[in-house]
Automatic annotation (TrEMBL):
Protein name listed in UniProt: N-acetylneuraminate synthase
SUPFAM superfamilies per the UniProt record, alphabetical: AFP III-like domain, Aldolase
Pfam families tied to this protein: NeuB, SAF
Organism listed in the record: Nocardioides lianchengensis
Record lineage: Bacteria, Bacillati, Actinomycetota, Actinomycetes, Propionibacteriales
A Gene Ontology biological process term: carbohydrate biosynthetic process
Length: 351
């Protein structure tokens, strides 16, 4: 199991949906606060921020990046873009405090050792590590030494790189770990989601709760991931997919967060009890078995002592008589009492 703040994920608990606010506040603290309140109204259980500056992320500040859907694409320099979309540390602190006040686990992704130290100073309950930092072992060591729970996205990496990251985190003291399968494309095409990696990761890392960092459009992949065993699903969220910013167009509208939370919980519930992979008659089917399956029914009125022929038996509902597989066994047997037509035959019906 994986515990972050007051919420535990992993069997037998329902999946945890992490609403990634990311850069979709567009660098506007007021907009970010509005998003936090809207997520609380949707019943969100966990929200996440990002703590970064352009200087912590890139050296080629003047490199052009193009984002947006076809027909609405925009090109800008990456350094100024990151600076435009970042929030002051104090704002992230206050937004996390607001989220906690509204009942949501609130945490962040730092992108530097200094960012980790700041988040430690304000009492963050745990950390998310971006896929871009799977190979940043010095950073992982620093973060792991906090002893806090860590969620690590395994995007853009090989299994050997994932192994190295996991060994580093566990070796430096992380006691609670979640690994999120991730396809780091924005958006991730549904045919490249490779969700069968989830049970593979479960086999490889039994000490971790496996989940999905989902950048695909819609909710299909998230629900399918839960069916494959995901205990945590992370999804970027936005006030509107029409907002002007690099991540809005592929993010989940906040108005749909409540519905997705319920869908993930229902998908988990539909799997049945953890560890109970068996086929059996469940509670509501018991009554159905009595009324809506076939059994051996007497086709005509017969007297005690008469021997039953195949023509004397019909196989129809209800299911309160002997199962159809006993037809050959009862043919030739004598009745123990007078029976009217349409009587369900039981072993007590015969001498």
């Amino acid at each position: 199991m994986f515990t972050l703040g007051h919420r535990t994920a992993g069997e037998p608990h329902p999946p945890l949906l992490v609403a990634e606010i990311g850069a979709n506040h567009d660098g506007d603290v007021v907009k970010a606060e509005t998003m936090v309140r809207a997520l609380a109204e949707q019943g969100a259980e966990a929200i996440k921020f990002q703590l970064y500056t352009a200087a912590e992320l890139v050296a080629d500040h003047d490199r052009d990046v193009t984002w947006g859907p076809a027909g609405r694409q925009r090109t800008e320099r990456i350094g100024p873009m990151f600076d435009r979309l970042s929030l002051p540390r104090e704002a992230v602190r206050d937004l996390m405090a607001l989220g906690e006040e509204l009942g949501m686990v609130s945490f962040a992704t730092p992108f530097s050792e200094d960012g980790v130290d700041y988040l430690e100073s304000v009492g963050v309950p745990g950390y998310k590590v971006a896929a871009s930092d799977v190979g940043h072992l010095p950073f992982l060591r620093h973060l792991a030494r906090t002893g806090k729970p860590v969620i690590l996205s395994l995007g853009k990496c090989t299994l050997s790189e994932a192994d190295e990251a996991v060994e580093t985190l566990l070796g430096e003291g992380v006691a609670s770990l979640s690994l999120l399968h991730c396809v780091a494309e924005y958006p991730a095409p549904i045919d490249e989601m490779n969700l069968r990696a989830i049970p593979l990761l479960q086999q490889m890392y039994p000490e971790a709760v496996i989940g999905l960092s989902d950048h695909s459009l819609g909710s299909t992949a998230a629900i399918a991931a839960v069916a494959l065993g995901a205990g945590i699903v992370e999804k970027h969220v936005t006030p509107s997919q029409d907002d002007d910013g690099p991540d809005h167009w592929f993010s989940l509208p906040i108005a749909e967060v409540g519905a997705l939370t319920r869908a993930l919980a229902d998908a988990h519930l539909a799997l049945g009890e953890p560890g109970s992979a068996r086929k059996h008659v469940v509670g509501g089917e018991v009554a159905e078995r009595r009324t809506a399956i076939r059994s051996l029914i007497l086709a005509r009125a017969m007297s005690a002592g008469e021997r039953v022929t195949a023509e004397d038996v019909k196989i129809v509902r209800p299911g309160t008589g002997l199962a159809p597989r006993y037809l050959d066994a009862v043919v030739g047997m004598a009745l123990s009492e007078d029976l009217p037509a349409n009587t369900p035959l039981t072993w007590d019906s015969f001498k």
